[in-house]
Amino acid sequence: MIKGLALTPPVIGRLSIGRVVEKNGKRLPEKDDEFTLTSQIQGRDGWVPHPLDEVLRQASPGQAKLRSLPVQLLFNDPALNLRVHYTQFDRSSGRPVCVGNGESCRRLGSEGVQQLPCPGPLACERAQGGACKPYGRLHVHIGEDDELGTFVLRTTGFNSIRTLATRQQYLQALSGDRLACLPLELRLRGKSTQQSHRTPIYYVDLVVRQGLSLTQALAQARELQQARQAAGFDQQALDEAARLGYAQSAFEESEEEGAAVVEEFYPDASEPPLAPAPSPPARRSLTERLGERIEARTRPGAPAAM
């Protein structure tokens, strides 16, 4: 095998909560409030939807938007399912130039790839203007067609990265190292912060599949592990093969993939990402409206009722 080529999990589709749109002659990232499954093919209007996207929407007729997905993880080691590094790309070529973990980094320079200290984006002079961010890639299995094929969710969102990493650590510990056998679900959650100016922001969570308790999920994971072992499935060897494949290269993202990543997740700092379209206001009940009228009339200075 040639050196310098990272062997990453086979990708058969993309999983996103946003898109790139054209506005005023520029292509800019736009956030969304639902999941979209796409193929790896781009058309004039962006990424072509994956057939599973429509299948999952039809399977949830009561949901206006696709905000949960049944998934299974490929590896027992959380660090193999979710790859997270501080990453800087060359904006013009999409080539990764620096990848670190807060302690050390691999940086591409005139003398090749060097191993250097990594102070993190806040303290690194090369990271100014959003050039370096925590960049995560989560590989999940969806559907029944290809048991080793994955959909990749790419994100630079701190809330998604922290939540996905924490959930995996907890579930791995609870299940007795059966993370890859658990029936799980990706769920989109919303929150508001001061930084978002009270506008909802969305992040990805990983939970036990809907309709199952944690105890039931653990029992199913034990049964699946036993069935796999009886069939000769070696999970430990699979994890080790993935670990060695990742270590083949200093950078896991190719230049070809990096160009699309830069466009969606590393836009020019002068062009802030577009916010998702606001949802229509919820209809208030009659009780709520009457309560507001009574409150308004009882305020000091309010005109007396006739």
Describe the fold and architecture.
The protein has 306 residues and is an alpha+beta fold. The protein has one domain. The protein has helices at residues 51-58, 78-81, 158-174, 214-231, 235-246, 255-265, 286-298; strands at 11-23, 26-43, 46-49, 68-71, 82-89, 96-100, 104-109, 112-117, 132-140, 150-155, 184-191, 201-208. The protein has a nine-stranded mixed sheet with strand order 3-2-1-10-9-5-6-7-8. Strands 4-11-12 form a three-stranded antiparallel sheet. The N and C termini lie far apart (88 Å). Residues 285-298 have a biased composition (Basic and acidic residues). Pfam families: Gp3-like. It comes from Sphaerotilus uruguayifluvii.
Distance between the termini: 88 Å
Helix/strand class: alpha+beta
Compute the CA-based radius of gyration. Answer: 23 Å
Q: Give the beta-strand count.
A: 12
Low-pLDDT residue spans: none
For the biggest sheet, the summary is: 9 strands, mixed
**Helix-strand string:** EEEHEHEEEEEEHEEHHHH
The order of strands across the largest sheet is 3-2-1-10-9-5-6-7-8
Count of separate DSSP helical elements: 7
Count of the separate structural domains: 1
Helical amount? 25-40%
Determine the mean pLDDT: 87
Shape: globular
Could you tell me the strand content as a percent range? 25-35%
Protein name: Hydrolase or metal-binding protein
